[in-house]
Amino acid sequence: MHIHGETKRRTRQKEQLNPSGDSSDEELTLCSRESIKKSAKYYLQNSTLHGLKYLAEERITIPERVFFGISFFLVVILSGFFISNIYIKWSASPIIISTSAKQLLTSNMPFPAVTICNLNQALRSRVQRISRSSSNYSLLMSLCSQGDEQTITYVGTWKYFKALLVDVAQPCEDMLLYCSFGSRKEICSMIFKSILTDDGLCCTFNALDPSFLFRNYTDDVRLEPALEHSLYEAIDWTPERGYAHKLPEYYYPRTSGGTGSRMGLTVVLNASTAEYYCTKSMSNGFKVLVHNPAELPKVSNYGFIVTSGREARIPIEPVYEDATPSIRSIKKSVRRCLFSDENDLTYYRTYSRKNCELECEAKLLLRDCSCVLYYLPRIDPAARVCGPNDNNCTNRVQTEIESSKTELSCENCWPGCFELTYRTTLSTSMIVSGPSYQSGEDLPEDLFNAINGSVNNELSILHFYYVSNSFRSTTKSEMFGFTEFLSNTGGLLGLFMGFSIFSVIEIFYYVTVRPYCASRALQQRRQRREAELKWLTPVRQRRRLILPRRPPPYSQLQGKSLAGPKSKRSLWQALRSPRDPLVYPYLD
Question: What global pTM score does this model have?
Fold first, then answer.
């Protein structure tokens, strides 16, 4: 009876430690099929996505479950179709060009650079002093685009060509007779600089100084030495960075003095038609181009002509394009514009489309014709200047570059993300002098007081001015940023399936967090059970070893048993007594 009671007590203790009745061998592992089925069912019953709970509903029939399963599958396909349309639109046209809501002041932008070229590229009196058999004459023929039938083997260099241009072209101080800017009379040689263009030697106003225009600047680039004690200080400017915060009192490129012809630039020009030797036009006068101060002008193709003996008014309207920094994350091939720090020009410091096209044209000529035209960037200082014998090759290359149907083009010259251009209009009238005619800009009367009208036919008057002191720019910005794409996608998923960010968190929970927590709980449960089973191991009380002694006489035993209050057990009783009960210290 004692052994049977002890067995019952042990069983009761095990039931207290494992109330579920499952042994460790019967517990489900995380990778078992039954465990995965239970987790999936629990997710379907508790998911926030619409329609999934019906798949795990036990109170509906199987056809109903199939109906909801097919419906959910079709809804997923439909939402994916609409999301793909949004993604295609986002990736195909991520940029939108909009008009800025804020007006810009013309006083914060530089007045445009104005380049003026006499249609005559060489003075007759100076050309007559050059021998036809000399090397300078062959270079002169390349300037005048003549001499195709001549056989000239001389290889020209920039050093000699520069000296020839300065020698035969009309100087700026002879062409510019009067200059004023902002209703203030200026010394023409102080505000106009000589520059080399595709129309020969020209005079430019308000252009960026060569030290800020070219990447590897040397004094050899200048056609004339810089003035040591000039009133106007050269500063750096780019369409993206603009002007510096601290500016000197007098600087260039200078800003606008105001609106109207009185506050703009006014010049009186002398054509010197008697000195005409070679020209690319069939008229007398000047070719003018209004351009960005940070760009070299290409007057031959894009300039407008003002004939001699006429007065011209050129109203100017600035056109400024900027961009938001957010479009930097868009690929260059998609946004189709470049920031200033993304340019790879080797000759110019400031990136613009026109500067890039000039470099591209120089590289193509150097590759196909083994020479560079005199006005193009000198990418290779050792490259020779194209002469008359190269006219056929240079004309072919330039025609292919300007044509959009040939493979030889500069399509990689994308516009700058920040660009400043100018829109101009032209109106002219004949100059008539006399007592009844008077200039409204207080021009010197001695320039026009002549006995006959021959002097008036030599002069031209040009007025460049702003018509407004404010304008609106255009801004390139993201049409579909990541935020807009996410909101449109979330709206479609929420409309079709009730999907949200928390649905992603739920999926992440059921795939990672829940199995990890279950595994950890199961491991802790095993460790706790193993620890409890160690405490439940039977522990016997240690008995003190008693050596057998000789039994006392019977009389003594009988006497002691009679005298004592309680008799002790006999040796036979001690040997026949059951074993000591087990002791469980943890339970005690």
Answer: 0.70
Q: Which SS3 state, helix, strand or coil, does residue 176 take? A: strand
What is the per-residue burial (b if ≥16 Cβ within 10 Å, else e) of 20-32? eeeeeeeeeeeee
- In order of 37, 236, 320, 331, 484, the CA distances from 328 in angstroms are 48, 24, 19, 8, 17
How far is Cα of residue 264 from the mean position of the Cα atoms in its chain?
36
Judge contact between 388 and 141, C-beta under 8 A.
Answer: yes
Contact 462, 277 (CB under 8 A): no
Task: Please state, as a whole number, how many other Cβ atoms lie within 10 Å of the Cβ of residue 526.
Answer: 12
* Pair type for strands 95-105 and 470-478: antiparallel
Residue 2 in 3-state DSSP? helix
The Cα 347–Cα 324 span in angstroms is 27
pLDDT per position as a tens digit, 120-170: 888 888 888 877 777 677 667 766 765 544 444 455 566 777 777 888 888
- The gap from C-alpha 400 to its chain's centroid, in whole angstroms, comes to 31
Residue 515 near residue 40, CB atoms below 8 Å: no
Q: Residues 48-61, buried b or exposed e (16+ Cβ, 10 A)?
A: ebbbbebbbeeeee
Look at residue 573 and give its three-state secondary structure: helix
- Give, in order, the Cα–Cα distances in Å from 504 to each of 201, 507, 508, 541: 69, 5, 6, 61
C-beta neighbour count of 152 within 10 angstroms: 17
